[in-house]
Amino acid sequence: MKKNIKTNSIKKLFTTLVLFQCIPTTSFAHSGNTDSSGCHNDYINGGYHCHNGGGSSGSSFNFDFDSIYDINIGYQHHISDTSLIPYIGFSVGIPHYDSSTKTGTDYGLRFEEGLYLGYNTASESYRIGYKKIHISFNNEYIGLGFKLPLTNDVIDQSALYFSGSYLVK
Q1: What spatial distance separates the first Cα and last Cα of the chain, rounded to whole Å?
Q2: pLDDT tens-place string over residues 23-73
Q3: N or C: which end of the chain has fewer CB within 10 A?
Q4: What is the DSSP letter of 7?
């Protein structure tokens, strides 16, 4: 009976995560009091600076996002009598082309031996990992990350997981 309750809870969580990914999300930008070139006065730090590569005059500082990240929570399920452990999760991160936070999906396939391959739609990056550590990359960034089980210490079993990656140019 106890195992049945745990299995049902995990199935409900997995179904909720999958359904959550089907909900469209929208982000709204605001002007931030910028002029037509995307620039504005910085009254706190002084000077005049631009966003999104706009022109500037006087003292300037162009903020360039040179790193991206993703944070994920999900579920991995060990398929009986195989070495396959597919996983899927909810992700929050910053993609390479924008500074705003994006939600997405973290999914991939882990093998019982410890190797795993995946893709993250929030940071738009691929990952290749072994055990708890992975390398993440896309066409502009490369970085490191981790993937840890939350419900038990065995990484090659069915479990909730938490993972994240940090990538730089």
Answers
A1: 51
A2: 454 444 444 567 766 676 766 666 666 765 544 444 443 334 588 999 999
A3: N
A4: H
